[in-house]
């Protein structure tokens, strides 16, 4: 999760319904993932309705807004391992990185292959601001910066994981400005997927030219949002 104005943090581990854990930020009373299942939620929103929806492209560039625990990146590595014919490059933004010893306590590695579990630890300890080759077909670049400071790259993105804290906790990241900024770095037809299904957020996306779908959400959540950027008019 991403927070441009994060207060001092009191973080506690919280079990979720699928056996995985998440973190709760006490100051905002906000969890990094759904209590109905951290793994199930991330797989449903970002992999099933984001990454998989962008295939059968043979090369995909992904931008994540909110690295947080790194779970979405771990799931993307799992996808890359299962699809060695697809070249994946992921850029993830997080101005307030979590320390690896805390993330390690979540125990995500036990749900994945030993190779991916080892890679997950290496991911958290890899340098920020430099591309890191996790797998032969998967490269990750971690940037310790907020979204509105992101200057993009010369190659556009086909997929966006929009995983900021919710509008109650971070209203500024759900206004028009961040979604307008994102348009500068998106390929025509790019997919933006998020757990947030608030009508006001969907309307802001539509006002900016995105095509918006309301899709069934993961367990415990009726709806989620997927938007597509058609490209400059």
Could you state the CATH homologous superfamily? Answer: Vaccinia Virus protein VP39
Cα radius of gyration in angstroms: 16 Å
Q: Low-confidence stretches at least 5 residues in length (pLDDT < 50)?
A: 1-7
Helix count? 6
Distance between the termini: 31 Å
Strand residue content: 25-35%
Strand order of the largest sheet: 6-7-5-4-8-9-11-10
CATH topology: Rossmann fold
Global geometry: globular
Overall mean pLDDT stands at 93
Tell me the number of structural domains. Answer: 1
Order of helices and strands: EEEHEHEHHEEEHEHEE
CATH architecture: 3-Layer(aba) Sandwich
Structural category: alpha/beta
Question: How would a textbook summarize the main sheet?
Answer: 8 strands, mixed
How many β-strand stretches? 11
The CATH C-level name is: Alpha Beta
Range of helix content: 25-40%
Q: Would you give an account of this structure?
A:
It is built from six helices and eleven strands. It has helices spanning 38-54, 71-82, 100-104, 114-125, 176-182, 199-207; strands spanning 11-15, 21-25, 30-31, 59-65, 87-93, 131-135, 138-143, 157-162, 186-194, 211-216, 223-229. Strands 6-7-5-4-8-9-11-10 form an eight-stranded mixed sheet, with helices on both faces. Helix 5 links the parallel strand 8 (157-162) and strand 9 (186-194). It starts with 10 loop residues before the first strand and ends with a strand.
